[in-house]
């Protein structure tokens, strides 16, 4: 069945890319999930984000976002604090060490993407993005 072949091709491709990314991040002591969380926090700016919102934005859902933040905080890559308006909400912010680590990775990550996707060309990549967006249902509560 064609749909099954397409589905499996997407899964295989995603798995291969995820493995290659994990190998590239290993020397920095980061997993792809940790890298993704740091990217999300860098994008959030000085205000940071509630941990629940970080979990919602993750590429791969991590059921234990608290443990993920614990590991990043132990390495001084993030800082957490209770919200001023609601003390039950814990906000995470990327630290200066976390920013420096991401900045040191930016060029290598850009090269990683270019090496794996650049040969396809801009027009085909745009088409691929549109096709994947069309094929993939959004997560509950998420817009495409």
CATH architecture of the domain at 15-112: Orthogonal Bundle
C-alpha end-to-end distance: 26 Å
For the residues shown, what is the average pLDDT? 90
Name the quaternary structure.
Answer: single chain
Give the helices and strands as they follow along the chain.
Answer: HHEHHEEHH
- Which structural class should the secondary elements be placed in? mainly alpha
Low-confidence regions: none
Strand runs, count: 3
Helix content: 55-70%
Using the coordinates above, name the CATH class of the domain at 15-112.
Answer: Mainly Alpha
Summarize the entry for a quick read.
The chain has 144 residues and is mainly alpha-helical. It has a domain at 15-112: Arc Repressor Mutant, subunit A (Orthogonal Bundle).
3D architecture notes:
This protein has 144 residues and is mainly α. The protein has helices at 2-25, 32-44, 51-57, 65-74, 96-117, 122-135, and strands at residues 49-50, 78-82, 90-94. The protein has a domain at 15-112: Arc Repressor Mutant, subunit A. It contains six helices and three strands. Strands 1-3-2 form a three-stranded antiparallel beta sheet. A hairpin with a 7-residue loop joins β2 (78-82) and β3 (90-94). The mean pLDDT is 90.
């Amino acid at each position: 069945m064609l749909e099954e072949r397409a589905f499996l091709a997407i899964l295989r491709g995603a798995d291969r890319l995820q493995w290659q990314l994990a190998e590239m991040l290993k020397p920095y002591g980061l997993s792809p999930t940790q890298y993704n969380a740091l990217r999300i926090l860098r994008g959030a700016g000085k205000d940071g984000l509630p941990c629940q919102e970080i979990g919602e934005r993750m590429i791969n859902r991590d059921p234990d976002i608290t443990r993920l933040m614990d590991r990043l905080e132990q390495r001084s890559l993030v800082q957490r604090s209770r919200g001023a308006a609601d003390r039950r909400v814990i906000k995470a912010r990327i630290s200066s060490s976390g920013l420096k680590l991401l900045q040191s990775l930016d060029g290598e990550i850009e090269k990683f993407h270019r090496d794996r996707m650049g040969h396809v060309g801009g027009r085909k990549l745009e088409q691929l993005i549109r096709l994947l967006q069309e094929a993939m249902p959004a997560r509950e509560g998420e817009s495409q």
